[in-house]
Design brief:
Number of helices: 26
Oligomer: single chain
Structural class: alpha+beta
Strand content: 5-15%
Shape: elongated
């Protein structure tokens, strides 16, 4: 491949220029076609919400708005005048007929009135805001209430969507700006590594690579919906990945130059070593994303498919365009250096490797303690929507929710459970009566208005005591499903909590099987490349442990709030969005395996050259320790820039991936892995003959019997 590209430099450059131009032209249309849908067809909660939308025009998964009205001093809901004011004011928000309004006027439910009688509240169920019938409906509620409220009457609106919007209203940098921030940070690190203008080369590769990926995303959108999260991942993660791969290849090219080879000979020498490691690294990233492609959830599949394009394009650019750039402008860019001497071998990392080999048991135990200590909090992870109070700070919507909580209304009001009955009025009344006596229920709102009833179908909004991101909130859904199973005509249970609960059960119920398949496929790929069953098992096992450190960070930082308020102005969320762990796993499994491949591929190479495990460890760390650290810093900077997005979900993903990458590179790959290799000695290179035949690699030969001195200094 490298020889072909070097013989046809003009063709390669022209091809990538065309891809870059087409990618630039397609970026806008590709971004415009991205969707914010989290649809989970085939799951009970989602199907219920879909039936509500089709029958009544109400989206059960869309968190409703809560209108709060306070009468002036001396007036109250115990008077006809006060009740009339509240009824007329709340009705004004539904003049277009798109809302289903449940208030005291049509329910006579005393739970809708505060103890002092001056404050009342109403629930506004609405259509899907992404559909024409729901466009602008939510935004029009508060202005309509304020316009209809008489002088002296105060009204305000709260709800999960309003609080979330308020939390994000401060804005943030665009994806383009975030990518630019990541690129500047990467350039600073690359200049430190290389000390010459050659540092610009990885960024020259990144630009057409990212643009080409957006071109492929536009093609993917012709056959399936693609989640908006892919936009962030392509721009920011794509930058980090391609820079990492370029960093490895350029460093090896320099090493071969320092060994006396010509510029072109150095390129050819780097291809079967560093180039092969890049291909293997990219494939492991793609394999990790198969965990998403194989799930029965459309938006997760789209993230997996879109995410797989990132490493595949990065591989292609690294093995085609990068050799051509090095052959044409590389010598000129690398001619003037800030410092001379070897920039590919680090004496500091060489000494560190020697310490690990001598103190391998201590180093291994220390690495395990650090990683397991960071991973331990992940056992307490709670999945679900963030707590409503964590999103809006001191905004009006958050203050309104606090006002409701102050008069005894639970925060679960923002996540009602929606019941959809099909047995006529009698069945609806029976379902409402059963729901009212179900543990965990605060109030049941069952208006008999046309917005809530059509033919034999009826919508009943159940206000739970606990939010849906808690185990008690999820348990309320389960109790309602069990209690309502005998109602004539049947009762479907929907709402955001029910849909999320079903999603969690469906996705994570199959996750162990998916995890096993991904681990097996990765093991076979690594065993074939490293010609070692032990190294492959070790790579997969250690990777799983390091993933736990990322999840532990998510729990401590976001769920428990140890730092998220200080850095992002977000209070403890109380939970992690239920699909974030699996998305983080899919990306982090492959990304962290990158550094495993960089390190172990060099160890395999050094062992083949010297026949000594000690020399393999010391030589590999001396040559790749600085490389892995800098690559992790670059990718960490990319994710840090992504975390500036004004969206808590994006911030969670970015910080979790960033911390996971840094812990993996700084602790796992440069402390734990070399210590484990040193402990295993010659057994690192064992490959059963049967597995060797299966993998179609040369039959293993007996490893040289290393003496005690061979793995000691």
């Amino acid at each position: 491949m490298t020889r072909f590209c070097l013989r046809h430099k003009g063709f390669v450059i022209l091809a990538w220029l065309v891809l870059a131009v087409l990618g630039a032209l397609s970026t806008g249309p590709a971004v415009d076609r991205l969707t914010h849908s989290f649809a989970t067809p085939g799951m009970a909660g989602y199907d219920t919400n879909l039936h509500l939308l089709q029958t009544l025009g109400i989206d059960g998964n869309e968190q409703p708005s809560i209108g709060v009205l306070t009468l002036p001093a001396g007036q109250g809901m115990d008077t006809a005048a006060g009740r009339d004011i509240a009824a007329r004011t709340f009705a004004a928000a539904n003049r277009a007929g798109h809302l289903a309004v449940a208030d005291y006027a049509n329910t006579a439910n005393p739970a809708l009135i505060s103890v002092d009688g001056r404050t009342t509240w109403a629930v506004f169920d609405m259509p899907n805001p992404d559909l024409p019938s729901g466009a602008g409906v939510m935004d029009g509620i508060e202005p309509a209430l304020k316009a209809a409220a008489p002088p002296g009457v105060t009204v305000s609106v709260t709800g999960f969507e309003q609080i979330q919007t308020t939390g994000a209203s401060s804005g943030g940098p665009s994806v383009l700006v975030e990518t630019g921030i990541g690129a500047v940070g990467a350039l600073v690190v690359l200049l430190f590594v290389y000390g010459s203008a050659i540092a610009i080369v990885p960024l020259l590769i990144a630009i057409p690579s990212i643009l080409a990926t957006f071109l492929l995303i536009l093609g993917l959108e012709q056959v399936t919906d693609v989640s908006f999260l892919v936009e962030y991942l392509v721009a920011v993660m794509g930058l980090g990945v391609i820079v990492d791969y370029s960093l490895l290849l350029v460093t090896r090219w320099r090493e071969e130059r320092e060994a006396g080879k010509s510029y072109e000979e150095a390129i050819l020498a780097a291809s079967p070593t560093a180039g092969r490691a890049v291909v293997l690294s990219g494939l492991t990233v793609a394999i990790g994303l198969l965990a998403l492609v194989g799930l029965p959830v459309p938006f997760l599949r789209s993230i997996g498919l879109g995410g797989m394009l990132i490493p595949l394009v990065a591989i292609t650019a690294s093995v085609t365009l990068l050799p051509v750039i090095l052959a044409t402008v590389g010598p000129a860019l690398d001619k003037r250096r800030v410092w001379r001497g070897s920039t590919t071998l680090s004496r500091g990392w060489q000494r560190w490797a020697g310490v690990i080999v001598r103190r391998r048991w201590l180093a291994g135990i220390a690495g395990l303690v650090i990683v397991l200590g960071l991973a331990a909090p992940s056992l307490a992870m709670n999945t679900g929507q963030p707590r409503a109070n964590s999103l809006g700070g001191t905004g009006t919507a958050a203050q309104t929710l606090h006002q409701l909580e102050g008069v005894g209304v639970p925060s679960g009001v923002v996540f009602p459970i929606q019941l959809f009955t099909h047995g006529g009025s009698a069945a609806a009344d029976q379902a409402a009566s059963i729901a009212a006596t179900t543990p965990g229920v605060y109030a049941v709102l069952a208006p008999a208005t046309p917005s809530f009833r059509r033919g034999n179908d009826a919508l009943i909004s159940v206000i739970p005591i606990d939010e849906g991101n808690t185990s008690t909130g999820v348990a309320t859904v389960a109790r309602l499903r069990a209690a309502l199973s005998g109602v004539p005509g049947g009762v479907e249970v929907g709402g955001n909590t029910a849909q999320n609960s079903d999603f969690t059960s469906a996705v994570y119920g199959n996750f162990p099987l998916m995890l096993g398949a991904i681990a097996l496929l990765t093991f076979l790929l690594l065993a074939r490349e490293f010609r070692s069953a032990v190294l492959a098992v070790k790579a997969v096992a250690v990777n799983m442990v390091s993933l736990g450190a990322s999840f532990g960070f998510l729990v401590l930082f976001w769920q428990d709030g140890l730092g998220c308020d200080l850095l992002y102005g977000v209070s403890a969320t109380g939970s992690i969005r239920n699909w974030i762990p699996i998305v983080s796993f899919a990306f982090l499994f492959g990304l962290s395996m990158d550094y495993e491949v960089f390190l172990l591929a060099r160890m395999r190479e050094e062992y083949d050259r010297t026949g000594s495990t000690r020399e393999a460890i010391v030589g590999a760390l001396a040559r790749t320790g600085r490389l892995i650290t800098c690559a992790a810093v670059i990718l960490g900077i990319s994710f840090a820039s992504l975390s500036a997005a004004p969206d808590v979900v994006v911030e969670m993903i970015a910080t979790g991936l960033g911390v996971g990458i840094l812990v993996d590179a700084l602790v796992v790959r440069t402390l734990l892995v070399p210590a484990l290799v040193a402990v295993m000695g010659r057994w690192n290179w064992w490959l059963p003959e049967g597995l060797a035949r299966l993998l179609r690699v040369r039959p293993p030969v007996s490893a040289p019997m290393e003496t005690k001195h061979a793995i000691e200094v």
